[in-house]
Write a structure and sequence with these properties.
Elements (H helix, E strand, L loop, with lengths): L13 H13 L11 H9 L1 H18 L8 E5 L5 H10 L6 E5 L3 H14 L5 E3 L7 E5 L7 H10 L6 E7 L2 H14 L4 E4 L21 E2 L10 H10 L7 E8 L10 E10 L3 E8 L2 E8 L4 H8 L6 E7 L2 E7 L9
Parallel strand pairs: 1-2, 1-4, 2-3, 4-5, 11-13
Antiparallel strand pairs: 5-8, 6-8, 7-8, 9-10, 9-12, 10-11, 12-13
Helix pairs in contact: 3-4
Length: 337
């Protein structure tokens, strides 16, 4: 798990962070290798990468809850940056016997940094740089905004389609969501769709009338960041909201996907809370639709929603567009601790 690390402000190059964020926001980060020094990577790894790591924690904890386990073999962290994605995976699942971590990035400085951090943290980890011919597991993290359509096509044809399992995490923007939906629709005939979906069929978000919506979710930062003055300084200087961690993700696996309980529904985005009711966007096998939950009928669930503590994986009983009963999903295989 990616617990927040002390920032040690005197060791962070704040001007480098501002330069990096400007490139990310402008969409120009994909034009050049933006890592100008080892200090760039160290500063990024202590700040921006930690926030990405908390998104990975959100995704991986859901996979663990569903009873999913990573395959042994060659693990590829493609576009690794500082290597936060592969470290999040190793933190939660460890490395099964026979696992080797591969890191790949257009920047030799980044691959060297990611390898050093991984091998320093996990004693005995076998690791190297490059792209294995047929990865057992490929991790992709925040890469779509830096790839041209031609580069994305090469990634899909030369890496993704050769992999056994793919975990793909992107910012929870409208554009990133629909880009991942396009990947899902293209590849679902060749992979089992594990998450975030509740079914293997066509994406309900593509149904007419759902154009204003997108498939995104919200990770939760560790509570310590909200009482840490250095994290507050980071948020002010680079203009980020520490509370907001929107994420879109896609998990594909050639192995059989752990089954979901019948009637599974996923809550998308954040419910909209009004005085006496909440509106929830639910994704189920029947499609993506908006429903209302009444405070009077379901006061405990309404209270959880208002406190942003609702379970994103649920089973509902509905009458028309009204939710009449709610239960959190339980799984045949309990989460590992």
């Amino acid at each position: 798990m990616n617990s927040p690390r002390p920032l040690h402000p005197n060791q962070i190059d704040w001007s480098a962070l501002e330069r990096l964020r400007a490139a990310f926001l402008a969409g120009s980060a994909g034009l050049n290798d933006y890592w100008q020094s080892e200090q760039d990577l160290a500063s990024y790894d202590a700040t921006f990468a930690q926030r990405i790591g908390w998104k990975w924690d959100y995704v991986l904890l859901e996979l663990q809850r569903r009873g999913w386990q990573p395959p042994a073999g060659d693990w590829l962290d493609w576009g690794c940056g500082s290597g936060i994605a592969s470290r999040a995976l190793l933190d939660l699942f460890g490395g099964p016997p026979g696992t080797k971590l591969w890191v790949h990035d257009r920047s030799a400085r980044a691959t060297g940094f990611a390898l050093q951090r991984a091998q320093a943290k996990y004693a005995g980890l076998e690791a190297g740089s490059g792209i294995p011919q047929e990865p057992a597991l490929t991790l992709l993290s925040h890469v779509l905004t830096e790839l041209s359509p031609e580069q994305t096509e090469l990634l899909l044809s030369q890496v993704v389609t050769r992999s056994t399992t793919v975990i793909w995490v992107e910012p929870g923007t409208y554009e990133a969501s629909y880009a991942l939906i396009a990947v899902r629709e293209r590849l679902r005939a060749h992979f089992n769709v594990v998450a975030p979906c509740t079914h293997p069929h066509g994406c309900g978000m593509l149904t007419a009338g759902n154009e204003p919506h997108w498939c995104h979710h919200f990770a939760t930062p560790p509570p310590e960041v909200f009482t840490d003055g250095d994290w507050a300084r980071f948020a002010r200087l680079v203009g980020v909201d520490l509370r907001a961690l929107p994420v879109s993700f896609l998990v594909l696996d050639r192995r059989a996907a752990p089954p979901l309980p019948a009637g599974a529904t996923r809550v998308l985005g954040r419910p909209r809370v009004y005085k006496g009711f909440a509106r929830l966007l639910g994704c189920a096998e029947a499609g993506v639709s908006e429903y209302e939950l009444s405070k009077r009928r379901l006061p405990d669930e309404f209270r959880r929603i208002r406190k942003d503590e609702g379970d994103p994986l649920q089973r509902w009983q509905v009458e028309g567009n009204q939710i009449t009963e709610v239960e959190s999903l339980s799984f045949a295989q309990p989460p590992q601790v």
